[in-house]
């Protein structure tokens, strides 16, 4: 077994050269200590390397030791967060006393909640020794914060690690990844004459007024109906797709020898637990299974790939009434691809064709916040991107939040005056965050629009945006007027589905890929090191579920790594809580895809940037333009014109697929 783990670690961590013996020993000890598979350990290493903000993190003995310390610190924080009351009691009690079961605790309900109640009888030697040690020890005078968090240490702290100034960044302009490299880039295509008119037309395919809902007014009945309706909708889709009769469906929680098809939502058997192969349950709707949950067991050879909130269709039996034994996982139907009639395509083609008949590719520049590192508010990365836009003159500049990040230490401190540009005439006694946004964001955008009047700028908010009054996701757009944004700027909702000419563009600034990677549980029947593309698989989950954020429930804020405030007196010993997903369950339907798959899906994430084609959808993660301690990446998309419809297609007037994935070149570039 150790040999198998060693070979898997070699394959994952160093495929081209053998790992040093001391490095291999540390990695093996980590898999044993934390009960992780080599693949899970490798995913954690990738996250750690990206979080450090360095260009490359070499696998050396020192970096592995730092990685080990980081994992141990995270484990300690997680364990403390799960038992905050015990931490407080142990810290403040002057004379610790054991809680005897015979002293009123008839059912043992106080076990684990008071010092000394470790699940062993009060008369046991182990319990007595613990109490005696507690009585003889000197009480601690330090009070632990009630959130049970230890100070962030190692790489988890925003203030730790080397800081690379933006001017000293390495490999600026380097192309990290290219998709469809055989196509020419819009920046290198010849343009015969400067453009004087916009070549794109925007149309929202989302009911934007519905996003102006009142946050924190959710009712349990409406939330449960939303969750139930999603299961029932997929039940009808599965029935139509697989041509199943009504009698084929049943309640997986009911004991029966008959084989049935059950449609439901994947959940964990513990409310605050982490999903694993032994804790997978299926939650039914009230119509199909009275809202009951059934424990799932999979027959040998049945592959599964699940996460909390995923809607699945399973065939199996529940003979003993204790667990639903799955014999087959039924496929879910995908939405049809986006399509247009030949006449509509011709109109869009004419819009992008110059007077001389030259149809140059449309160019998109796509970037995601944060736009400045934790050490300053210079927004140097954003200024560099806008300089590129001034030179390349793209048709679309897509910027997703956060813009003024609530998790930024300087913004959290509130002392912004020393970090504002000297040209900003702001009264510090009367200034608002809107004034800060105008000085740091709006002014550079105004200068770009004056230099490139044909550009269209799309701003997508984030739940981490300090200027947004919408605090939950799905999130309404922020007001454009008070921010002094130019007319070329379009502020949209989060998420949003847009038509840019014929192209259907889906955008959400919510980091779904990080949530999926943390919560995903997959059968290992295929083995490790088989060349599977994890990021493409996660993107396929989003497309299959027809939702911008299909995970439910998302990871709690308390379970996320605490952020060091970097400011004395702010955040205390426990650090600052991250914002988290902030879902409003009653309005999750606003995140659903209605009728077609998007041609392009932009989902920014803290995971490594990528561009991939999944189920005929071009999925782009541009990465963050600025990392916590260094520069990041952005994406440049060059969309070539679609081939003209034939005479037969025009006469038939049937809808034609957009085929964006085959005529778009994407370059992921270091800023």
UniProtKB/TrEMBL annotation:
Annotated region (Disordered), positions in chain: 112-159
Localisation: Nucleus
GO cellular component: alpha DNA polymerase:primase complex
Main location class: nucleus
Gene3D superfamilies (alphabetical): 3.60.21.60
Keyword terms: DNA replication, Nucleus
GO terms of molecular function: DNA binding
Protein purpose: Accessory subunit of the DNA polymerase alpha complex (also known as the alpha DNA polymerase-primase complex) which plays an essential role in the initiation of DNA synthesis.
Annotated PANTHER family: DNA POLYMERASE 2 ALPHA 70 KDA SUBUNIT, DNA POLYMERASE ALPHA SUBUNIT B
Family: Belongs to the DNA polymerase alpha subunit B family.
The name this protein goes by in its record: DNA polymerase alpha subunit B
Organism (species): Cryoendolithus antarcticus
